[in-house]
Design goal:
The protein has 19 helices and 8 strands. With 401 residues, it is an alpha+beta fold. Helix 16 packs antiparallel against helix 17.
């Protein structure tokens, strides 16, 4: 049977999601630009991640690797293989023996903010595209080295099309986020969404700023400074009430106006307080030194104290700090083992966060997400009550701990 059918607008992405959730043998994708993992999961679902018998391949363009989302590339590598094809411009989605050939990259911008069109192909039409993909993959595509991806990525991990799309309005919605499918997703159910929104805020912030306040500091640390200012240092503490209240209702234009307004206030505050260097850099350097993979096995109780002193979540809740540091609750060996797996383990980050939470007494969600933010500030934001309330103040719907 030969079939071809045109797809566009909402039907385009809905068809891809439907095909992805039913895939049994292969999911092969060619896309020059790749979005963040949260958006990719809204487009593709999560069935393909670890589904038995599904052959996963991603063909992309190494030229744009500094704007490929590291976390998404890593997930594809865990589930299958990633290769580079110089000059790739085709956008191909293959599910089993069905091909969707069109104009849309694997990004939120393409499927929610642009007028894209594609063709669904079955039979001979699909077989011809399959042969082209196989030929490209086996004869001229090159492996993407993961170390190269890490070295070349940008702190905000947002690829070029997503940044360009900031100025575009939403035309239609992506499919809903997949339902939680593991205990880790239930414990940290909105973590990917939180990172997605944090990256979006960081990208808008960087676009609006004529110059960074602390250009040598990771961008996420500067965003944390802004969110801390909204919660603690601004005389009106405008974000604090959003610990309890629902997120504000802001459209894209209103959000940019609010961010611009408070970026100006924040910049003025930092100038008045004469904070030449970002104090977060010192804490991060200390934690990275103490918890280096070659040193963490030698961690002593005094070193644990020095790490804990950098965690806002434990510093602000004295009883939680005392309970965590009580050696009857957590031995140094258990702490070392848990932190080593959290920061240097090979499993999915949400699974490692859950294991850490289950292993350590009184080391909760905020402490866990702060620690990974201190250790990998270009990959993970510092997440605590200040950050959650700040995002909600800017209209992002995230949970508050």
């Amino acid at each position: 049977m030969q079939t071809q059918r045109a797809l566009c607008e909402q039907e385009y992405v809905r068809t891809i999601r439907l095909m992805s959730e039913k895939v049994t043998t292969r999911m092969w994708i060619a896309s020059p630009f790749i979005g963040d993992l949260y958006s990719v999961r809204r487009i593709l679902g999560t069935h393909w991640e670890g589904a038995p018998g599904v052959n996963v391949k991603l063909l992309t363009e190494k030229t744009f690797i500094n704007r490929l989302n590291y976390e998404t590339i890593l997930e594809f590598r865990k589930c299958g293989a990633v290769k580079h094809l110089s000059g790739l411009h085709a956008k191909i989605f293959i599910f089993d023996d069905v091909v969707i050939l069109g104009s849309a990259n694997l990004t939120k911008t393409a499927f929610a903010k642009r007028h894209e069109a594609g063709m669904l192909l079955v039979g001979t039409y699909a077989t011809e595209v399959l042969k082209i993909y196989e030929d490209w993959w086996s004869t001229i595509a090159e492996d993407v080295e993961i170390d190269e991806t890490i070295a070349a990525r940008k702190p905000d991990r947002r690829e070029a099309e997503e940044i360009q799309g900031e100025l575009l309005s939403n035309l239609w919605d992506l499919p809903p986020a997949p339902a939680p499918h593991s205990k880790a997703n239930q414990a940290f159910s909105d973590y990917q969404k939180f990172i997605h929104y944090y990256q979006e805020l960081a990208a808008i912030y960087e676009t609006l700023m004529k110059s960074r306040i602390w250009p040598q500091s990771p961008l996420f640390f500067e965003i944390d400074g802004l969110l801390n200012y909204l919660f603690h240092d601004n005389k009106n503490k405008p974000s604090r009430k959003y610990v309890h209240e629902s997120p504000r209702k802001l459209n894209d234009s209103q959000r940019r106006i609010e961010i611009l307004k408070y970026v100006g206030k924040f910049k003025k505050y930092i100038k008045e307080t004469n904070e030449i260097a970002n104090p977060r850099d010192r804490s991060s350097a200390l934690i990275r030194e103490l918890l280096d993979p070659n040193k963490i096995d030698k961690l002593a109780y005094e070193d644990v104290l020095r790490v804990v002193d950098q965690l806002n979540s434990l510093s602000s809740v004295k009883i939680a700090r005392a309970r965590f540091l009580n050696r009857n609750n957590n031995s140094v060996e258990i702490i070392k083992k848990s932190w080593k797996n959290l920061l240097h383990g090979s499993g999915k980050i949400q699974e490692r966060m859950l294991e850490c939470k289950n292993s350590l007494y009184s080391f909760g969600n905020s402490s866990i997400q702060e620690l990974i933010g201190w250790y990998e500030p270009n990959l993970y934001p510092l997440r605590n009550r200040n950050a959650n309330a700040g995002l909600r103040f800017f209209g992002y719907d995230v949970n508050v701990y």
